[in-house]
């Protein structure tokens, strides 16, 4: 994942509600799956192992986010465990495993993306900086301006 992509995810995470965080996790997982596929195609076992490890980390976070008291959580857990098993197959260079994971994750991502705006909760991370992005006079370059850079920044105890 490029540093620019990481920065975009970081900014989105800082301002996301709980449902949007799930959407971001799905997007990160899909990005790592793409990296794993590129590594598998190039024969780079180290990069494949790293991409699989990061993909597994996303799946672990998705598993931990489940509220087991609600009905669909059990089904989602089974899907996540199946995807984790397929990641092991992908690392063992079995073709089609990554595509199968994508076929499971992409519809879940799309469903959560549709319901995310309906979540009335505010950002999960409190007391984070507000980021405004826009075009400036710098020849069409996108710059980001931070608001409230010092007064209430950081964690409150």
Please describe what this structure looks like:
The protein is mainly alpha-helical and 157 residues long. Helix content is 62%, strand content 8%. It is built from five helices and two strands; from the N terminus they run H-H-H-H-H-E-E. It has helices spanning 3-14, 18-42, 45-64, 71-91, 97-115, and strands at 130-135, 142-147. Strands 1-2 form a two-stranded antiparallel ribbon. The longest helix is centred in the N-terminal third of the chain and has 25 residues, at 18-42. The radius of gyration is 18 Å and the shape is globular. The two termini are 34 Å apart. The model has no long low-confidence stretch (mean pLDDT 82).
Topology:
Blueprint: H1 3-14, H2 18-42, H3 45-64, H4 71-91, H5 97-115, E1 130-135, E2 142-147
Give the structure's gist in a few sentences.
The protein is built from five helices and two strands, in the order H-H-H-H-H-E-E. It is mainly α and 157 residues long.
Which word captures the global form?
A: globular
Strand tally is: 2
Our estimate of the beta-strand percent is 5-15%
Q: What is the H/E order? A: HHHHHEE
**Treating each run of at least 4 consecutive H or I residues as one helix, how many helices?**
5
Q: Regions with pLDDT < 50 over 5+ consecutive residues?
A: none
Which radius of gyration do the C-alpha atoms yield? Answer: 18 Å
Average pLDDT value? 82
Helix/strand class: mainly alpha
- Spatially, the strands of the biggest sheet line up as 1-2
Helix content: 55-70%
Mind describing the biggest β-sheet?
A: 2 strands, antiparallel
Give the termini distance in whole angstroms: 34 Å
